[in-house]
Amino acid sequence: MRDVIGTPYLGRMTQQVHGVIPEFTIGDRLRKARELTGLDQVQFATEIDISRNTVGNYENGNVKPRRLALKAWAMRTGVPLEWLETGVASSSPDGGGSVTSDTQPTVQYDDRPGQGAELLRLVA
User: Fold this and answer.
1) Among residues of the chain, what percentage have pLDDT more than 90?
2) If residue 58 lies in a helix (H) or strand (E), which one and from where to where?
3) Is the distance from CB of 34 to CB of 50 less than 8 angstroms?
């Protein structure tokens, strides 16, 4: 097969590069995990009870995510917590940090009178 000017057509990829793995930041991993849910930043922020600005700051790398936020992110997206934090997931069957039905923490709100702002905590 030849292209328009008569030179042999080699297709789109004429050279293959081996051994190159892109480095993803924690922000990249958070964004990719959120995008798997099909939710935009506003919808996702609402679901895990943080602000849209916080979601954007985490994803853009402007702010280091708090551990509680990472746990909520992992729970909502189904992505292993270990992968969100490090970019590496263990080879264990549960994904090394993913939330399974056996270990799924519950979210509890403490709204007792006199406590001021509502408190959120994860109970494993």
Assistant:
1) 51
2) helix 52-60
3) no
Task: In whole angstroms, give the CA distance from residue 52 to residue 73.
Answer: 13
Residue 38 is encoded by which pair of tokens? 């099909």
94: which DSSP letter? T
Name the E strands within 31-103.
none
What six digits make up the tokens of 104?
């799924």
CATH class of domain segment(s) 26-123: mainly alpha
Q: Please report, rounded to a whole number, the percentage of residues in the chain having pLDDT higher than 70.
A: 58
The whole-model pTM stands at 0.59
- Report pLDDT for 118: 41
Map tokens 């292993």 to a residue.
80
